[in-house]
Structure formats: C-alpha cells, structure tokens
Give the backbone structure.
Amino acid sequence: MRLVLLGAPGAGKGTQADLLKERYGCVHISTGDILRQNLKDKTEWGLEAEAFMKRGELVPDDLVVRMVSGRLRQDDIARGFLMDGFPRTLPQAEAFDDILKNIGQPLDCVLLLEIDEEVLVERLTNRRTCRSCGRIWNLSTMTGGGEICPACGGDLFRRDDDAAEVVRNRLKVYREQTAPLVAWYRNRGMLQGCDASGTQEEIFREIRVTLENHDIS
Ligand code: AMP
C-alpha cells in the first residue's frame, strides 16, 4: 500500500496512520514527526525549521523534499508507505511525483480526510500526546485530568503549535497552500474522500472500505 493522507491539521491523519500501520504493516512517514525529532536533536535541519514551526508556518519546500527523498530510499519502503503531512504544497507534490518515478513506487491513492474547521480548532486545542508511547488523545473525550496516558501511564503534553493562535495560523496556511492539492490529485484521478468527523473507529472503518473497494492492501 502506498498512500498519501491529506487533510487539515487535526483531521486525524496521525491517528489513522497509526491504525493503518498496525493493520497493514506499512511504514508511516510523518514529516511533522521527523522535523520535531530534528528539532529535539538540534540538528541543522531542526535549527532551520524551528522558527517556521513555532509560528505554524510551512518549512521551506527544499528542506522537506530532501528529507522525504532520503527517507523513501530506505529499504523498509518495500513494505509500502503512508505519507502523513506531505506533500503540503504544489511544488512538494511535483517533487514527490519525480521521487516516486525515480524509485519506481507509484502511489495507490490519496485519502482526503474531510472535516469542518470549527471541529478542527476544538480538536487541536484539546489534543494531548503521550511522551512515552506517542498516542494521541483528546481532553474532551477522555476520563481523568488529561495529564496521564490511559494506555501506558506516561505523561501527556500539548504540542507548542496546538496553542489557539498558532492553530488558527496553521489552518490558514492549510487553506492557502495545501488545499489546492485536493484539485490537483482529483484531476489525476487519485483522490478518495473520507468523512473525518466521526470517532477514530468510524473513520478507520470508512477508510478500510474505501481501500477494499479499490483493491488496495
Ligand atoms: P504536522 O505534525 O504535520 O502538523 O507538522 C507540524 C509542522 O511541521 C507544520 O506546521 C510545519 O511547520 C512543519 N511541516 C510538517 N510537514 C511539512 C511539510 N510537508 N512542508 C512544510 N512544513 C511541514
């Protein structure tokens, strides 16, 4: 399976990618996760990306494309891959096409997670991530104080860029720079829409039906 998960921040790309990875055994490539790791490790890429990420802006295309190009040349890609958070601009989509041609791994489809913006703001500002196991939770649907991970007991934290002002900027950036990819992939006959307003399980079920209907596994 070779998929792109497309959708606004908070649509559930990371959560669905985790579920898909578990079920289909493919590699999950999240450019946001790779950048956050680089930031933590204070690498050259991390230092270059830091200011953009703090403001909720996109990191320059050439940095992200170099990062993805290197990742897609690793051997585990033979198991299939899920792109989460990439491509996010038209130049990235074009560069991605070239990379896939070069490595001989054409995309099966682009799954668009569709959801209203008001729901996204609520989801993102209430989003908490576990420092130990990396699972993603929502304060409004979990029991307890939202400080401890119900799965493993690790500490939960809020991503810096999930603060309300930064969230609004990230959604604006999505509308202006990433939303045009919907038409771009639709024109190429690659786009499949999924309603992302339900629970994790409902969304996952819909994605699985879409994949099965297109013989993607
Ligand atoms: P995410 O975890 O996908 O929401 O990404 C967090 C942040 O990392 C974004 O707000 C951007 O600053 C940066 N980022 C992640 N993926 C990309 C990308 N494909 N292009 C540019 N910036 C990105």
Remarks:
- The beta strands are 2-6, 27-30, 81-84, 109-114, 127-130, 136-138, 156-157, 191-195.
